[in-house]
Design a protein that fits this description.
With about 150 residues, the protein is α+β, with helices and mostly antiparallel strands. The chain has one domain: Glutaredoxin, CATH 3.40.30. Helix content is about 20%, strand content about 15%. It is built from three helices and six strands. The strands form two sheets. Strands 2-1-3-4 form a four-stranded mixed sheet. It has a two-stranded antiparallel sheet with strand order 5-6. A hairpin with a 5-residue loop joins strand 5 and strand 6. The protein is globular and about 45 Å long. About 30% of the residues are buried.
Length: about 150
Amino acid sequence: MIAATMADITIYHNPACGTSRNVLALLRHAGFEPRVIEYLQTPPTKQQLRELLAAMDLPVRAILREKGTPYAELDLGNPKWSDEQLLDFIGQHPILMNRPIVVTPLGTRLCRPSEEVLEILPVGPLPPFTKSDGEQVVDHGRRRTPR
């Protein structure tokens, strides 16, 4: 396993989101105090978004959040919008970015559901973890191979 320092792990976090809170708690449960970026207050730049998407190998539409956002009123489901335009919309309305996104030495991942973070943790397996809703997360130790 790769030895990671706290500075090696970043979470793009929304403290109002239960999934995001669970992922942050899982990171801490693993012994990490990650760099926490509350992206609604400090949105990633367009270039940072491009880099995150490239690292996740995802298209822009894969990180668009519909619920609780101006997605419908902006007609973002319409295929007329280019990736660059969608990135501009996320820049103007950071709430459109789905969360949490976690960056570790093993990769970058949109962690929905929260257990998705386990695959990119540079430690493990972890003892069982109980999410805020009472659901237990069991870590089977499967990790991504670093690129």
